[in-house]
Design goal:
5-stranded parallel β-sheet, 12 helices, Rossmann fold
């Protein structure tokens, strides 16, 4: 198993040095991005790294907030965050970050300590994989799961800011999966069927109506409720589309949390 590691942060020198060492010494697959909310969110969606290494440098209350976009992934155990910082940046991070669990490594960086932690992470992932491949028989009571599980919502929008905004609005109540295109939505639908789809009306390549038309011909997806996300300027066009394609309604962006949740409750109950 080759570990995929995302390296980001304001301290470019430390980030560059660590990228080089982990790639050369450990053979990891390294991906990099700038320390902005949009960049981190996009690459997490695209690459699904197991470890995120954040190299802090001269941080403020505002700059550490960019890493809060990792909150859901780290909380659910989808990735592990390692923060490399001096004492001052560590204090700022701990004071203003909303991440519930990270591992701190002080500068100057001890490669021995870093490699030891990475080995521990690899072993845990390997163990988890082996357990999943084990010869256990699993019984899933679908009826009980259906009664108690959180509703799954797929959000399709090519605007990263909108995806982040909607995910933050809904994750208190629902399991939210954000994707940035109709093509990505169909890949997700091949594996899992959500309870509802929030679908951006205007997107490049395949717009909302094209995605909905294709969705209605896709086996197992014909009856999934769809709510269009639309800007005020296209509102009259969407209303025309309602009679033609019969989605379950529309929401004008940017919607208030109360309006969006109310519309979803109206559709899902």
């Amino acid at each position: 198993m080759t570990l995929k590691v995302l390296i980001t942060g304001k301290n470019r020198k430390v980030a560059g040095d660590i990228s080089e060492r982990l790639e050369k010494d450990r053979g990891y697959f390294i991906v990099k991005c700038g320390p902005t909310k949009n960049a981190i969110f996009d690459i997490i969606l695209a690459e699904l790294p197991k470890v995120v290494i954040i190299c802090l440098g001269d941080e403020t209350a505002d700059t550490v907030k960019a890493y809060d976009v990792l909150r859901d992934a780290t909380k659910r155990g989808l990735c592990i965050a390692i923060v490399i910082a001096n004492d001052e940046d560590e204090k700022i991070f701990m004071k203003y970050s909303e991440l519930s669990r990270v591992f701190f490594l002080s500068r100057p960086v001890s490669l021995f300590a870093l490699y030891e932690k990475m080995t521990e992470i690899e072993e845990k992932l390997e163990k988890k994989m082996n357990e999943e491949m084990g010869a256990f028989k699993e019984f899933v009571n679908e009826e009980a799961e259906q009664r108690h599980r959180r509703k799954q919502i797929l959000v399709v929008d090519d605007d990263t800011e909108q995806l982040i905004h909607i995910k933050e609005q809904l994750e208190e109540f629902y399991d939210v999966t954000p994707v940035k295109s109709g093509e990505a939505a169909f890949k997700f639908l091949e594996k899992k069927k959500p309870d509802l789809i929030l679908l951006d009306y205007l997107m490049p390549n395949k717009d909302g109506p094209m995605v909905l038309k294709e969705l209605r011909t896709m086996e197992g997806c014909e009856s999934i409720p769809v709510i269009f996300l639309t800007g005020m300027s296209e509102k009259h066009i969407v209303i025309q589309t309602l009679t033609e394609l019969m989605p379950q309604g529309y929401v004008v962006k940017p919607a208030k949390k109360s309006e969006l949740v109310a519309k979803i409750i109206d559709v899902l109950g």
